[in-house]
Amino acid sequence: MTNLSLNARAALLSVLILFVGLAVWELSIPAQQAVGELTEYEKLTGAGAPRAGVPPPSQVIVKAWEELSNPFYDAGPNDKGIGIQIGYSIYRVLTGYLLAALIAIPLGFLIGMSPVAYKALNPFIQVLRPISPLAWMPLALFIIQDSEASAIFVIFICSIWPMLLNTAFGVAGVRSDWVNVAKTHELSPLKTAFTVILPAAAPTIVTGMRISIGIAWLVIVAAEMLVGGTGIGYYVWNEWNNLDLTSVIFSILMIGIVGMLLDAMFGLLQRRVAYVE
Amino acid sequence: MKPFLSIEKLTQRFPDGQGGQLTVFEDATFGVEKGEFVVILGHSGCGKSTIMNILAGLADPTSGVVVMDGQEVRGPSLDRGVVFQNYSLLPWLSTLKNVTFGVAARHPEWTKAQVTEHAVKYLGMVGLEGDVIHRKPSQLSGGMRQRVSIARAFANHPKLLLLDEPFGALDALTRGTIQDELLKIWGGTEQTVFMITHDIDEAILLADRILLMTNGPFARVAESVEITIPRPRSRTEIVEHPNYYAIRNHLVQFLGRRSKELAGQQTGTGETNRPETVRIDKAVPTDDPEDRRPTLRAVTN
Ligand SMILES: Nc1ncnc2c1ncn2[C@@H]1O[C@H](COP(=O)(O)OP(=O)(O)O)[C@@H](O)[C@H]1O
Ligand SMILES: [Mg+2]
Q: What is the ipTM of this complex?
């Protein structure tokens, strides 16, 4: 045991925790009551139906296998494969997120470079930033008149702030020595921005982008529960209405996994742009 | 005729933080000839870096002008290369890329291969070859980083090379090696160099002329001491030269005593502020008995 590497020991421990957790979960769920001896009331409310209880992990795994072996089926508005639902969510997140990046990064550059712009825009940022993105939803629905675009707008508005602030912070913090190197080499402002300031501020900017994508993924679930139709958020809500807790748990897991993958992508990017002074 | 680099009535004031003004120096006036290696020596805080930043075009003086090669200095230029004390290498670029960065800026018309070849040549001149040049600055020692910085500056053949305490952060042994390298790489060129240091021996080894600055505020470039030791110089041989200790004593006296005595005097304007030229040469016997004193002076201005 001791001559295993740190990583190997950690992995072993992870697997152990997983199995112990699953076992505790499995064992703590009482065997399903036999169907049949239910009162009329119980039948009506569905309280006695086997699906209504918290399912054991074995059932979730079976469900996951079913869903993942055919993720892209489409059998009408209320019955789409998990792949399609996640696809919709990712599409919305990326659209809103990229629009936000397109505005936040250049604007953050401006704010970071110019103390006047910083002072002028700061009050607006301070007021707008703490607003819960979902609070925008009614206004967005009213103005945009389209639930799809409203969901994208909510993603846009929630992911813009970390990127904007981090870009401004990163750009303002670029060491003046490096800017002086650019100056003494007569680089044009545009060339300075791309060859000196951008790489120098990149780690801070990417950190902002990573925070933003995390928030966007958190918010999309809630937004889709509100606007409905498609997406993983709607899927969770729909399965809850169906009292299909197995599917609810499965989709919760999927939300976690997709979020982790999105975050890992930015983690990779972060490592690419990192530098040691 | 104006010297190649002419600093005319340069004044720098900063707000002192209490509503008043801090005059770092006032009406500083001096010149540097083409191909000359001039070192400026003075206590910390007297305004050496301030002068250098103005020469580099990175800062504007409160008043006064700097004229180089007949043109007034306004803003930074590739004609004035700078080596900063903290090397100022871009940490996300490899050693080689840090040099090609500068070369490509100087010669936008060159091909990539030409740029790389030129950069590799100059890195070789400061002893950086092979795998090392593909490392990031963070993987280099302080001495190696400063070599890269020097290679970057020399590779661009600026008309004027500015060095702000380039070896200040290095240990004595490394400093010695790089001083030798600097002398070697400078020897082959007609490069005009203006360098800041606080190390007397370094100044004597490298300089044609040493400018001595009094303490601030109202610092002055009080003296211009000629280094009457022939080149090529080496650190082991110059100490044998009869002028070495005379010059060294003069510098030590100035920094230890006179820089304080002369400090804080608000002087008259204009020509009176030119540094007094000091020439110490014990190798040349003269009839004038005054000249046999260990410290000889000839005011030539
Ligand atoms: N931007 C600035 N604002 C206010 N004071 C400054 C500024 N830059 C330098 N000074 C002051 O000018 C004086 C000279 O500084 P500096 O040129 O860095 O000295 P040196 O390089 O000779 O050690 C110091 O007293 C310093 O505090
Ligand atoms: Mg300094």
A: 0.86
